Amino acid sequence: MFEVSISNDTSSHMAWEDSEPRRLPGSAESSEPVQRRSNVGAILVDSPNLIRAALGHMIQAQPDLDVVLEASSADECIVGFRRIRRRTRLVVMVGLGLPGEHDSFWLIREIRDLFPTVPILASGAQPGEYAISRALFVGADGYVDKETAPTEFMDSIRHASRGELVLCGVPEGWLGKIADGVDNQSHAQSILTEREVEILEVASEGLTARQIGHRLGVRERTVTTHLGHIYKKLGTGSRVAAIIAAHRSGLVTPVSRF
């Protein structure tokens, strides 16, 4: 049975104490062993290099935590993850702002499928309840906000490594909305096929049916047929309405024009 660790302190911001320059275990300048097996190994995946480096510096300064991998993209994370021999006492920290076709939600689902026992924590700077519920739906074991206090951020990694569900830095009033969002996604996912969800995700970028077909390697007519099925299933009459409905269910994240 999972234990839940919840913190809703959003008033404090990250601060870093002065310490020795961070050197990843196994680097040429490091005198530490490649892996300290008794420690929790953190995998950091975030696109802003400065934020990722700062988080890594703070984690590495903890006596019971190690940074075993840093990646700036989903694909880089998967490649690096496969090279890590250990599969226990690991926690993956996935920033919710990863760009590209293989975004944060794709990565969370991919890690959950490839490494089902490894805890995953999503992280962001107050991204909104829909993004958090979507991260939880696709496989994250919790969420920690980047604006929480450093001690709470570190404790979130420790809690996740013990199999606890973590919601740190989430406003108390959001908890019900996040739970509803997960339920809505379960309902929407149950009526849409995997291909239909994939087409909606690409359609949310504002592409034409022909462009969607080119992206996914299918014919334009196939795309329009799928879109017609999607409209009927979601009870909508247009692409924009379908995208908005899917967004409310947390299945897609539309671009700003919608």
Approximately how much beta-strand content do the residues carry?
A: 5-15%
Distance, first to last CA: 40 Å
Order of helices and strands: EEHEHEHEHEHEHHHHH
| DSSP helix fraction | 40-55%
CATH topology annotation of the largest domain? Rossmann fold
**pLDDT averaged over residues:** 76
- In spatial order, strands of the major sheet run 1-7-6-5-4-2-3
- The best one-word shape is elongated
Task: Kindly give the count of domains.
Answer: 2
CATH superfamily of the largest domain: Response regulator
Q: In angstroms, what is the radius of gyration? A: 20 Å
Q: Please, could you describe this protein's structure?
A:
The chain is α/β, with parallel strands linked by helices. It has two domains: 4-173, 3-Layer(aba) Sandwich (Rossmann fold), CATH 3.40.50; 192-248, Winged helix-like DNA-binding domain superfamily/Winged helix DNA-binding domain (Arc Repressor Mutant, subunit A, Orthogonal Bundle), CATH 1.10.10.10. Helix content is 45%, strand content 14%. It is built from ten helices and seven strands. It has helices spanning 49-60, 74-83, 104-114, 129-138, 150-161, 175-191, 194-203, 209-216, 220-234, 239-248, and strands spanning 4-7, 40-45, 65-71, 90-95, 120-124, 142-145, 165-168. A seven-stranded parallel beta sheet has the order 1-7-6-5-4-2-3, with helices on both faces. Helix 3 (104-114) links the parallel strand 4 (90-95) and strand 5 (120-124). Helix 7 (194-203) packs across helix 9 (220-234). The longest helix has 17 residues, at 175-191. Residues 10-35 have low confidence and may be disordered.
